[in-house]
Specification:
Elements: H1 9-28, H2 30-36, H3 51-68, H4 76-79, E1 84-88, H5 95-102, E2 107-112, H6 121-133, H7 137-144, E3 162-166, E4 178-184, H8 193-203, E5 204-215, H9 234-241, H10 252-261, E6 264-274, H11 277-283, H12 296-299, E7 301-310
Parallel strand pairs: 1-2, 1-4, 2-3, 4-5
Antiparallel strand pairs: 5-7, 6-7
Helix pairs in contact: 1-2, 1-9, 3-5, 3-6, 5-6, 5-7, 8-10
Length: 311
């Protein structure tokens, strides 16, 4: 088997065997697999973060959604009031959803393909830190009221402002129930991007808006070049990773096409991080068939913001 730069038959073959075996574990026992891998939904860079650091990450995420929607951060205390929001992939702690509920959102529906949310000691510490970041006592009371026993974060979410759903597809499957859809580093993991875009279109009311940060990096699955995970043929990539929620490898060119097809008007597609020209040139001759027609400019996109509206 050929890697991006040299023949490494033993190393690459062992990697394939291990990946296929663990992929079967993820398919049969997804909860056990997620526990074994200590998946948080915030990516490998979050490992070792303190509760306060994680809480600040969630607050910064809220602010970044506002930035992308053209709303001043000073309006954080009023902008979210009364809104009905859908969040894809909240991770192990629904921190953004809880902050939005504290800031006055009418409802936040969280949906995921894997049952990651839990309220262990660390998550409880994060939520306590979130309370301290809210602007006033009323906001803190609204956050505490999201739990079955208000203020007891170990009691689990109440049937109220924040709801959490786990579905086999990771889709909500409801019509005209929210006026905003958000996600952060989630769309690159979905099994079926067109279906996910159609799901958010259906969930939005007419004129509703969606804001997503998409991370096209390898999530640690590259070897020597940040793009060399695009050298695996698609059939083999699926055998190795399709059950694990790892990147689907869909590049930015597909988002340009699929969002309008799903009934969404693209308002912003803004690159955040690019691979270097050298990285693209180095990997280009070794790309799997699925990526050979993508422009070098699009191949370089490693992360971006997408803002769109239901027509």
């Amino acid at each position: 088997m050929q890697s991006a730069y040299a023949y490494r038959p033993i190393r690459d073959s062992l990697r394939v065997v291990r990946a296929i075996a663990t992929n079967q574990l993820a398919r049969v026992w997804p909860r056990a697999y997620m526990r074994l891998t200590s998946e948080t939904g915030r990516g490998p860079d979050s490992a070792g973060d303190t509760a306060e650091e994680t809480a600040r990450y969630f607050l910064e995420s809220v602010y970044e959604y506002m930035d992308q929607l053209g709303v001043a951060r000073s309006e954080v205390g009023t902008f979210w009031k009364g809104r009905r929001i859908l969040e894809y992939g909240p991770g192990d702690t629904p921190g953004v959803a809880l902050l939005l509920a504290g800031l006055g959102a009418q409802s936040v529906l969280c949906v995921d393909r894997f049952a990651l949310v839990r309220f262990d000691d660390y998550q409880q510490s994060v939520i306590a830190a979130l309370c301290k970041l809210l602007p006033d006592d009323a906001a803190r009371d609204r956050l505490r009221g999201c739990f079955r026993e208000p203020g007891n974060f170990a009691s689990g979410l109440a049937d109220g402002a924040v709801s959490y759903f786990v579905t086999q597809s990771g889709l909500l499957g409801r019509t005209a129930v929210v006026d905003m859809v958000i996600s952060r580093a989630v769309l690159e993991h979905v099994d079926d991007l067109p279906a996910t875009l159609r799901d958010m279109t259906a969930a939005l009311v007419n004129g509703g808006v969606a804001a997503h940060k998409v991370d096209l990096r390898s999530h640690g699955l590259h070897r020597m070049n940040r793009l060399d995970f695009l050298t695996w043929p698609d059939w083999l990539w699926r055998l190795m990773f399709s059950g694990k929620g790892v990147p689907n490898r869909v590049r930015v060119d597909r988002y340009r096409v699929e969002a309008p097809r799903a009934g969404l008007v693209l308002q912003k597609l803004e690159v955040c991080e690019r691979a270097t020209q050298d990285e693209v040139a180095q990997i280009h001759p070794h790309l799997a068939r699925e990526f050979v027609d993508i422009t070098k400019e699009d191949l370089a996109w490693l992360s971006f913001w997408m803002v769109c509206r239901r027509a």
